[in-house]
Give the backbone structure.
Amino acid sequence: MPGPVRLGDVVAALGGELCGGPADAAERPITRLAPIESADDASLSFLSNPRLVAQLAGSAAACVIVAPALRDQAVARGASIVTPDPYLYFARLTQWWAARARAVPVAGVHPSAVVEPGARIAASASVGPFSFIGAGATVAAGAVIGPHGHVGAGATVGEATRLAARVTLGEACVIGARGILHPGAVIGADGFGFAPSQGTWVKIEQLGAVRIGDDVEIGANTCIDRGALGDTVIEDGVKLDNLIQVGHNVRIGAHSAMAGCVGIAGSARIGRHCTAGGAAMILGHLELADHVHISAATVVTRSILKPGQYSGFFPVDDNATWEKNAATLRQLHSLRDRLRALEKKLP
Amino acid sequence: MPGPVRLGDVVAALGGELCGGPADAAERPITRLAPIESADDASLSFLSNPRLVAQLAGSAAACVIVAPALRDQAVARGASIVTPDPYLYFARLTQWWAARARAVPVAGVHPSAVVEPGARIAASASVGPFSFIGAGATVAAGAVIGPHGHVGAGATVGEATRLAARVTLGEACVIGARGILHPGAVIGADGFGFAPSQGTWVKIEQLGAVRIGDDVEIGANTCIDRGALGDTVIEDGVKLDNLIQVGHNVRIGAHSAMAGCVGIAGSARIGRHCTAGGAAMILGHLELADHVHISAATVVTRSILKPGQYSGFFPVDDNATWEKNAATLRQLHSLRDRLRALEKKLP
Amino acid sequence: MPGPVRLGDVVAALGGELCGGPADAAERPITRLAPIESADDASLSFLSNPRLVAQLAGSAAACVIVAPALRDQAVARGASIVTPDPYLYFARLTQWWAARARAVPVAGVHPSAVVEPGARIAASASVGPFSFIGAGATVAAGAVIGPHGHVGAGATVGEATRLAARVTLGEACVIGARGILHPGAVIGADGFGFAPSQGTWVKIEQLGAVRIGDDVEIGANTCIDRGALGDTVIEDGVKLDNLIQVGHNVRIGAHSAMAGCVGIAGSARIGRHCTAGGAAMILGHLELADHVHISAATVVTRSILKPGQYSGFFPVDDNATWEKNAATLRQLHSLRDRLRALEKKLP
């Protein structure tokens, strides 16, 4: 890890107004970024959730990033950086911090890598140990292929896109610029398509590919299948967490985000700026409009054309109570009929 | 991609009756297979879903594959291939198309591969870069081990079976002929077995293996654990999608198919010709008869011995409505009691 | 496989009292461990579930491991090993059996491995083919890194810990002693953190790591994300099955165990000795006390501070019945209101 930074360096790089604290606050050395509740006097912290304001006064942080509305409270405590959106400032701070701390991948192709004929690798790209770059593949400027990477024949990795260790980008698949693919992600496995024939399944070869836009992040062990005839499409700015399954022919609109363990079945069309909580399951051949938000563990069985939050999962309870309610649930329809019968008797 | 094909070539290879369209329809060049709604005049398309018949008349496709019942309507539009089962014909067409378009893996062992003593690799098999073939393993004729493949000691890969990039077939595990394993699949990790002892867990070593039949396809990042004492068994013709978990000692009957994110807990016995929708969860030590179909996201907690469709998940709703219903659900049993009380007052 | 063992060897190694059977029972050759219902006369079996006692008399096993309470019944059948906890004895027996049967990894670094400068690898450790050991990483005595292993820069693998094939241990992550990581596990991918900004997502770089204690087992393709600022922590003795997602900043207390497909969202704190059934989903920023047990497929949306079993999933039913009940469920709140109205009419 590199040495400490001065608060003045942070503000010089990222903006915001440094105020409060000792006269030499700008010289204050910062050795780590920390949550407000565990920050010490060498920590830079932030406060973005208004419900946590009570934690401000007691924080030992060297400096706290706050919104203008909290300026007075923050300055009363000590050194503060005032900025309109502290959480966004914090995000940019982590990027600046990581850029200082992390080793830059060395440009060039590791001698252990296998590069097939016709592959084009930019001079500024980095191809790690044991990587395989297929025939006719393209790795653009500044791209990084981590150890054990796989870029299939004819596939394209855009500028400054980083494949972490052990990512598979299948034949003819494309990812745009500034993307991040985490370990174990599989882009371009075959979609799940079979024609039934006399009790057996006859494979439908999956002839499409996967096209991923710019600024997309894809989590560890997440799978995005290639299209059957056309392509599976992930638009710009989409963020997918770990262990997500995206079926063939799916389209995910720009800037949508999905939490871990989500499943999206084949040919579903997800709008822009949608979100899905962990383990939500979206069935195939349906459509979600822009700005549709699906709660965790919810099964979407029909198209949703109106923006909003949608949910559907059984609430947790102690096991004995759940058992009683679940058993009764299996008679719910007849309970309704009995209620109706009573209502008729008592009009 | 290879050049276009003639419609006459398609029929010569796959059968069916070419009828309708211009006199030289058989000479018509086809450059792609396409869905009926997006087909252009160089596309070969198909119509198998009777609900989509309305799309037939307006399709720009060079030719549409249809069933005999639609012959007149199809011929009125233009060139058509008439065949008893258009979807099955289409599946075979994709296979024929892919065989034309795709590079054939080169037979032989890539110089970067590591092959341990006693491994037997057929001369016609292909072993890709950075693959590891363990001691005493067998790779049969025409089999393909993709880049970063792992065939453990004593494992067997059957004839013409293809391991895509980065597949793990563990020690002593067996897969039959004509199988396909997609990237990241893990066959033969340890089953999850521990004996509790004074608040800690003592590992039960998993001494069995995984035995997979012929014509099995296994999706990306899907895991099939080895048996504890006996073997985990996947019978012929089973199709598993991505990110599926199959626990130790499970048996899946022939020609069953499971969609993505399904979980099957240890020692469950699944019959033949069963299906499970995405994220269905089948608990351990239970049995599903042949021809049992489980809907997506359904939790199977008991054996099901009668063929049919089974379901169980909370229906999705707008969040406010769901919240009200979910909260009430936690009182359902007492609602039933109150209903009973009313019924007694009003006999 | 090695040759048979004598029953006397088993008892000499693992204890227990050998009784019943022929005079030369200790000389009896055992060639396999088997479940009681499929054991043959060369099998050693065990009986720990009292509900299965009926299987004892008819078992063909050479010897059955039983608790003292079953001594008389067992001896009446034949050779028996009597021990206070047969299941624990069986677990230890599998370990002893596996140690006899399995090849010991060869100490040393495979010539194909890439080891970056400053990595420290103990002389007794084994580093497999195509493994990558990053700068400054540590691989302790007796540790095993399987083929295609990835130990990131500055990461630490504790004594006798085994990484199976194709495990990723990210930069600066730590695992203690005697751990087992199964193929495809990804330790230390970025947590899922973004600040929203004008309809796009700005990445929060994940600056923490993952710290894993001693005696931890992690399943195939399971993912544990690195912390955002602090570390994600897995305490001693935790057992995680396959395809589990653990979000950033999570803490899992010692000796907790999770079945396959479980998801734990960011910053959740799980106590000690907890369990979760398959596909349970624990939302973020909440707390589970020690000894909390979550049933399969249950969504935990609030902290649970009292030990016990908790559940919440829709019970499975035949599809037609489920459809009726699920449809009615969407009106449950209004049914309650109607019931109240009736109650008012009939006080």
Notes: Chain B has a mean pLDDT of 96. Chain B touches chain C through 77 residues (CB under 8 Å). Chain B has six helices and 40 strands.
